[in-house]
């Protein structure tokens, strides 16, 4: 009779991560402490964006992915929000387009130059206004160039990211320019209480 264990042996039991070396990491980035439940950074094949701590509005850094090491405290930032930035997301179809949302009830879409941010960016390509409360989350559609911007439970807007057309409410009707609308139940499904 052969001995058989009552549990499966894991292939990853003795696997340990290896931290990167100092020259392959970012150092001195002033990361924010106020992103609530969101991520404080977003990356794509060209850049990494990090929400930073600052006074008098919101900003974030855009760093080239291959230029690691110590980050200059005076590094140029993307700053155009009057409130704290809560989330940043890269456009999945354009490596030089990023969206940011903040406590000032706006979503801004930015164009990052090919060479990176060389001076402070203050002019957004598009500013989406119309939310009545802070916008805490943004998501790009995985197959279309649309942006979903929920602001409060049960309220949000679908905004076209690449064109200058009007946003649509989740029910398919054309909304007022960049105005929030109530989503359908299949877009934002709430768990049922039992």
TrEMBL record:
- Which part of the chain is the DUF1899 domain? 6-69
Give any GO molecular function from the UniProt entry.
actin filament binding
Biased region (Basic and acidic residues) positions are 183-194
Entry keyword Hydrolase: no
Q: Which UniProt keywords apply?
A: Repeat, WD repeat
Q: Which SUPFAM superfamilies match?
A: WD40 repeat-like (SSF50978)
Which residue ranges does the record annotate as region Disordered? 149-194
Cite the record's Polar residues compositional bias ranges.
Answer: 162-172
Q: Name one Pfam family in it.
A: DUF1899
**Which residue intervals correspond to the WD repeats?**
78-112
Q: State the PANTHER family in the record.
A: CORONIN, CORONIN-2A
Stated name of the protein? Coronin
Q: Which organism is it from?
A: Labrus bergylta
Q: Which lineage do the record's taxonomy fields give for this organism?
A: Eukaryota, Metazoa, Chordata, Craniata, Vertebrata
